[in-house]
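Lecture 7 notes: from sequence to structure.
We start with the chain below.
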Amino acid sequence: MEQFKKIFNRPDIIRNIYNDKPDELNNTLIKQNLLPPEIVFESIIADEKSNQVKLNLYASSSSTLNKLNLFVDGAINSVYPVTGDQGRFSFNLDISHGIHWITTLVEDKYGLESIPKSVMINFSQNNKLPSGNLYVLGVGINKYLHLNELKYAQKDVDKFIDTVLSVKSKQYSKIFTNKLYNDNATATAITSGLRQILNQSSASDTIFLYFAGHGEVDKTGNYYFLSSDTKANSIKRTALSLNSVIRILDQIDARKIVFIDTCHSGLISIDFNSNNKNLIQGNNIVIISASKSRQYSRGTWLVGDGHGLFSYYIIQGLDKQRNQVDSNENNIVELSELYRFVKQKVVNHTKGEQTPWLFNKMRGEVPLL
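Predicted structure tokens for the same chain:
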């Protein structure tokens, strides 16, 4: 959908019409009736012994090709400059132990992109260790110094981390966890936890961030996660802004999956679409919030043994109902599978009053657990 903005997002034309100034639509893409380029896998040779994958691709364009992108598990792997209106290309990739997805797309000189094409590589049959680690930072706040208390935020995060560990996923070499609850979940402590991951992680790693507690939006529309020491009359100075979190995450090369279960998490989508639409400069990040804009994440909807609705189905999708979630039956839950499951369950349970929202800057499938 983003690439349609290159053709149809023309505020200059609207301004001219509004000001009674005639304007000719001289958009080259429309004039030439150009179509997005195309790319296909012609052959894939996967050798698990050497952990090598050879790709043979064919790309074509109605204009001129510009670059070819390769993604592994949603994260950008490499970018290659290409020329001409068509061509065949061969690449060798090192793929570690586990279930992985290779995705490719090609872009033309106007910035139009092909439909991404993906293929799954199963290197889980040998006894080698995966190269990537999983870092989990969970923040759950029930007790606040200056705000109303919550009942289930800590329990939701605690269960999420326990579930990640109990699944015993073979997708990661090691799993590192950090829990910040109540008095320990100050804005300073959360920032320190994020910077610790920044200093320890690498591009082959995956990061889960789970925030559960109060959330708020200031008068200018910026979203804040309310830390345990936040003051209601000084949110900008004492809470943790989404902007500051994103600035740290943009410095981390690993895949970042952020779960946000707060009472105003739906307003994050407005925040991105207006104030922060250009905030995230990097890639490899996904944000899943409990609700979308103009909806309220209801802490009063409790299920199971006392969990918030959004958190409950996240946990169920990764654990007890993972066989139902794993639609491609590859024994791992991918991002698209989990989001589809959680969204359907939450929408059905609330009869449409709450809809989980997804912001995704990765391409192709993203294996989780």
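Points to note: The first helix runs from residue 5 to 8. Confidence is low (pLDDT under 50) at residues 269-279, 293-300.
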